[in-house]
Design a protein that fits this description.
Layout: H1 28-38, H2 48-56, E1 60-62, E2 68-70, H3 72-81
Antiparallel strand pairs: 1-2
Length: 83
């Protein structure tokens, strides 16, 4: 019995073992907000869409009373891309 072409197995990369890191590039506005946050400047009046994107991407986190802080991932992103 032969397999149909749709059922043939194919090699699929196991991304959990891949040394390649996939990084989402931030917009100019998001990068600017992340930079200000890293300098302890409040993002209180920043557009929530920008803050939510930073939090969702793991670059920042929201703490008590809505205080936004930069995560280790955010700090690494700034070291790599913010010149």
């Amino acid at each position: 019995m032969t397999q149909s072409p749709a059922l043939k197995s194919s090699a699929v990369a196991d991304h959990s073992r891949s040394p390649v890191s996939f990084t989402t590039h931030l917009t100019v506005e998001q990068l600017d907000a992340l930079r200000r946050c890293a300098e302890d400047i409040s993002l209180r009046f920043e557009a929530w869409a920008i803050v939510n994107a930073l939090v969702a991407g793991g670059y920042a986190e929201t703490g008590v009373a809505g205080v936004v802080t930069v995560t280790a991932k955010g700090e690494e992103y700034l070291r790599t891309y913010a010149k």
